[in-house]
Amino acid sequence: MRRSSADTKAAILSAARERFAADGYEKTTIRSIAADAGIDPAMVMRYFGTKEKLFAAAAHIDLKFPDFSAVPRAQIGAVLSGHFLDLWENNEALQVLLRTGVTNEAAAERVRSIFATQLGPTVAALAGPEEAPVRAGLAASQILGLALTRYILRLPPVAALSRDEVVSWLAPILQRYLCDPHTPEPLTP
Fold it and tell me: Each residue of 89-103: pLDDT tens digit?
């Protein structure tokens, strides 16, 4: 049975996501992806050109933020926490990107780019442009740290938390980073 071009491309991307997730960027080969997709390696190259371009396509991620203008300001941390839990649990590409980003500079840059171009403007709309980069970075540290411990490393206490428990722990931190005024307090020795 012959596949359409769209079906072939989808099969390659699916195989690539699984292979990058299982083996990481460095160990994944075009041949292994082609074998998983049931096609000739030349077809992978025809559709994507290089391993780097294939990885970029496999790791294409739209964070699909909700319209925060419709969310009560006091609930933004909870809504964002729940949103990211949904993303991590339902988007294999995010897990692939995080797992690979820890050991591969190109993948790490992809993570940085996604958070800078998608989370950054969202935070700027909530808190203003001056503090947006720092606030977005701090929010990302919590979101990525949670994802790493819950979905990649599967740290038992964190992995065992219910969705509601995760939101109750994470929401106040994200709320502070995104919405609360920043008032530096002097450090006391």
Answer: 987 778 878 888 888
Classify burial at 149, counting beta carbons within 10 Å of its beta carbon; exposed 0-12, middle 13-18, buried 19 or more.
Answer: middle
Q: In this structure, are 86 and 160 located in the same domain?
A: yes
- What is the distance between the alpha carbons of residues 168 and 173, in angstroms, rounded to a whole number? 10
Considering its fold, how many domains does the chain have in total? Answer: 2
> pTM for this structure?
0.77
The Cα-based distances of 44 to 9, 16, 65, 100 in angstroms read 8, 10, 32, 20
- Beta carbons of 48 and 11 less than 8 angstroms apart: no
> Could you tell me the residue range of the domain that residue 124 belongs to?
68-178
Angle in degrees, 0-180, between the axes of helices 30-37 and 5-27, rounded to the nearest 10: 140
